[in-house]
Amino acid sequence: MNALSVEQLYEQYIKRLSPAEMRQLVTIIQAYLVQPGTPRRRWAEIAGAGTYPLVGEDAQDWVSRTRLEGDEQRRQ
To answer: Are 22 and 14 in contact (CB under 8 A)?
Structure first.
């Protein structure tokens, strides 16, 4: 049996599937690609890893500045 290329597989089989069947196929492929036992990173693991201030600006100053800029843009 000859192996099909990805393009041949798509043209001969996948292209003919309905959108619902394609979504189901993607779900199956995604489940296959997720290796069992591979731990997912949690945000709590990296909390506090950045130095203060992370990008040279205080977080509250950034929020205040962007809100003022947004207000100014809406006024225009």
So the answer is: yes
DSSP secondary structure of 5-64: PHHHHHHHTGGGS-HHHHHHHHHHHHHHHS-TT-PPP-HHHHTT-SPSSTTSS-HHHHHH
Kindly report, residue by residue over 49-67, the tens digit of the pLDDT. Answer: 777 777 788 888 989 999 9
Low-confidence ranges of the chain (pLDDT < 50): 1
Answer whether 59's CB lies under 8 Å from 48's CB.
no
Contact of 25 with 17, CB cutoff 8 Å? yes
Taking alpha carbons only, the member of 35, 40, 10 closest to residue 25 is 10
